[in-house]
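Structure in, sequence out. Go:
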């Protein structure tokens, strides 16, 4: 019991430290979103801001595992879509409130993440990536097989929102996102994050030092799956519908691209990049016929120019003040 209490106190201390040491730029971005929503009052603007927050959640949850271990998870839609569908099913068929459905979906995603992590422990590099794709593909197919429950190709619609106002839904998703980033940052600054980071350099050396890297990877999968599940639930209850695109491989690839462009292993970097690029993609709807070509070309150009990600470029890493402003204290 004393050991459990000590771990609890340590966890609370890390959360408090994460709140204080979180990126000032992220707090400013949150304030900016609140001000824009308050002064605009435009339905479309607030819907776009909700989408920006959700994709930032997707990228941050991916980065806490893959960004630290350098093992690319190309099946992140497995957790996002799985939790989103579960939250939608619980609400649509069992009339369970979103406030319970979202945490239940996230918890199930975390449990499944434990299983996926255990099954892929010995895999590295492309073999790990292919295995995660397979899990996502299986769930994508199941959404069509069990069409009476999932709605098949059309998905499920008529799902309850968090609240009856889009503005308060926006504030709800923003609050969930900020809490998620604080928790992810606290995890990254713990000894779990330190061990995960060590595996990307020399996992064999870490194991030779007596560290059970398998345990830490499984925990990383659980944490990543849980917060991806939160993002999936947020998507379901803000868009009031889910469809197989939430399970598609294209979503996983997009999340990997956004996180890589933002800067792996920083959490806030991928969140910023995902949010800004989602905003850019929505702005391109004014030229819908060229939107996909321009957006994809822009992503490729960013990957080519900044191969290590925007948050890991030289002008950021060399400036201690700039890095602290953008990313907070080192994680």
């Amino acid at each position: 019991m004393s050991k459990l209490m000590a771990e609890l106190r340590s966890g609370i201390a890390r959360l408090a430290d994460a709140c204080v040491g979180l990126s000032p730029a992220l707090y400013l971005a949150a304030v900016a979103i609140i001000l824009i929503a308050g002064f605009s009052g435009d339905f479309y603007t607030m819907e776009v801001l909700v989408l920006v927050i959700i994709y930032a959640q997707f990228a941050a949850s991916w980065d806490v595992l893959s960004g630290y271990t350098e093992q690319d998870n190309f099946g992140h839609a497995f957790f996002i879509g799985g939790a989103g569908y579960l939250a939608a099913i619980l609400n649509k068929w069992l009339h369970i409130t979103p406030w319970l459905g979202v945490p239940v979906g996230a918890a199930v995603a975390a449990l499944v993440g434990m299983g996926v992590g255990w099954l892929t422990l010995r895999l590295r590099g492309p073999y790990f990536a292919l295995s995660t794709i397979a899990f996502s593909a299986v769930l994508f197919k199941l959404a069509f097989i069990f069409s009476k429950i999932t709605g098949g190709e059309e998905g499920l619609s008529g799902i309850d929102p968090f609240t009856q106002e889009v503005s308060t839904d926006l504030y709800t998703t923003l609050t969930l996102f900020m809490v998620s980033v604080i928790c992810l940052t606290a995890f990254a600054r713990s000894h779990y994050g330190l061990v995960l980071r060590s595996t990307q350099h020399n996992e064999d050396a870490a194991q030779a030092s007596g560290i059970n890297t398998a345990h830490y990877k499984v925990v990383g999968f659980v944490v990543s799956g849980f917060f991806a599940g939160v993002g999936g639930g947020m998507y379901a209850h803000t868009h009031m519908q889910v469809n197989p695109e939430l399970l598609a491989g294209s979503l996983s690839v997009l999340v990997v691209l956004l996180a890589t462009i933002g800067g792996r292993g920083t959490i806030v970097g991928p969140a910023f990049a995902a949010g800004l690029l989602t905003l850019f993609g929505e702005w391109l709807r004014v030229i819908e016929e060229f939107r996909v070509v321009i957006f994809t070309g822009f992503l490729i150009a960013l990957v080519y120019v900044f191969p290590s990600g925007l948050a890991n470029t030289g002008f950021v890493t060399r400036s201690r003040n700039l890095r602290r402003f953008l990313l907070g204290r080192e994680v």
